[in-house]
């Protein structure tokens, strides 16, 4: 039990209801909720003065805040977290939302990247938020690895997979590398690569590095330690982040926050945080909700993220889908949509043999 959950349980019924109705009112309208508004909706008949006293107590506990001089209150980040963890009522996916998403998922003749792009656009459309989809990693066994020097500071890695797919990746090599040292590094990796996926090869070479650090060529070591190069080709069919619906979040955000939101999307679209994004989902199977500064990706923008991993037939996490929006998201509606989408994407890719 978290400290926040304990705090919520320590509230009496009156305080808990006032808190819940303030949060629900704020999530519905985006405006501070005043005591007079609550007098018309409370289960117990209370005066505005009594409700104000309860709201002041909740403010002292750090659950509510006053954005202006007015008597209205909004939930703090801590308050939103407590509401999401302890009071949020999550229903099932609405029939109309399910129909729209099913239609997007039914486009079985598309390649995986095109399909996921369509799913991202559909998810953004029905949630009115910005969707993010992490496409599955290429996990076919490797047949061959080749290094091609493009310039002193750029090397092209050509990966040939057992299924015939070829990927080109760019990275910056350690200083002083020569064509001969690159051939040696490729020979070293190819001797270990056959029959192994990229992640399996990385683990194998990491063990070799630990055992024979002084003997292993610096280029091979740097390549493995940096995560096997950097994805830079927009047309790749392997792991990439699909960001759709950016305008939705910009439109739903206060003017003074626009620069921070743009910074968030610039970071995401430059793909610098793909690994971090997947890590958000990998710590648990279900939907996870991150509010504001709870994650470094969203600390500057003050946004919220609802994210769920999707899995292949072996129950291995191979990607994630999510919705980004202002902290005033309709969590009760969006959580089941994200969960449903993740389950359906995982099922669809498993049927195709993806991941």
Automatic annotation (TrEMBL):
UniProt superkingdom: Bacteria
Alphabetical GO biological process terms: negative regulation of DNA-templated transcription
A GO molecular-function annotation: DNA binding
Cross-referenced InterPro entries: GAF-like_dom_sf, HrcA, HrcA_C, WH-like_DNA-bd_sf, WH_DNA-bd_sf, WHTH_transcript_rep_HrcA_IDD
UniProtKB keywords: Repressor, Stress response, Transcription, Transcription regulation
SUPFAM superfamilies assigned: GAF domain-like, Winged helix' DNA-binding domain
Record-annotated Heat-inducible transcription repressor HrcA C-terminal domain positions: 114-335
Entry-linked HAMAP family: HrcA (MF_00081)
Function statement: Negative regulator of class I heat shock genes (grpE-dnaK-dnaJ and groELS operons). Prevents heat-shock induction of these operons.
Similarity field: Belongs to the HrcA family.
Name of the molecule in the record: Heat-inducible transcription repressor HrcA
